[in-house]
Amino acid sequence: MLEAIGRLVVIFAIAFVALIAVALLFCAYTVHTKKIIFPNFVLFIISLLYEPLRRLLSFFHVDPALIDGVSVEIRNALNYPDFACTNMEERVLILPQCIRSTECPAKLSSLDGIHCMECGKCAIGELSASCKELGIKMYISPGGTFTGRILMLCRAKAVVGIACYPNLNEGMLNTKLIGVPSQGVPLTTQGCVNTTVDYEAIINKCKMQISK
Ligand code: SF4
After folding, report:
1. Are residues 15 and 107 in the same domain?
2. Which of 114, 124, 127, 139 to probe ligand 1 with, by most ligand atoms within 8 A of CB?
3. I need a labelling partner for 26 at 20 to 30 A (CA). Which of 57, 69, 146, 178 fits?
4. Ligand 1 probe mutation, 93, 107, 117, most atoms within 8 A of CB
5. Whole-number pLDDT of residue 155
6. Distance 161 CA to ligand 1 centre (A)
7. What's this model's pTM, rounded to 2 decimal places?
8. What is the domain extent for residue 44?
9. What are residue 92's DSSP bridge partners?
10. How many CA atoms lie within 13 A of 25 on its CB side?
């Protein structure tokens, strides 16, 4: 009996190490080639081994957010068909408050986040004007709880989210759970204030449509 348990433990350990190695190989391939292969399979393994993979990367002094980055790119690719066939008016853009100017005069509404006044102190003003032209609703969220509330309130059919890779990964998983296809754009510098993002990439995501 003890021998059988010992064998099972060894088999389990070998399978675990093999899966970790496979996941890391796929992540390295995606990062180096910018190509995604077997997206559903890779996302499944990464989700299954999320914490061990992050800890392993940290141990080797590699940024653990790499795992989230690969997950977000896979989610973007998988969500593309459902997202791209929605109308502009059905989409919402959700921005984090950390990309606002530190002198932002906008007020916080307890209902739907921060209302940009297009004061010109940061690039969100221009983005807000572009969203109005496209017919897309734009929200600035002060945090994850608010983002969930905004999504419930606006009944969006598709979402473009902006955040750091770990928050994007979590947010895109949550939108999938409520059946809303999402696209994520990562911040280009991280932090709690004065973060930056590629605004052109945001507009491109917002405009994404399947060519007819
Ligand atoms: S443009 Fe909008 S978000 Fe940026 S500082 Fe002005 S009110 Fe705040």
Report:
1. no
2. 124
3. 178
4. 117
5. 87
6. 18
7. 0.89
8. 2-62
9. 137, 159
10. 9
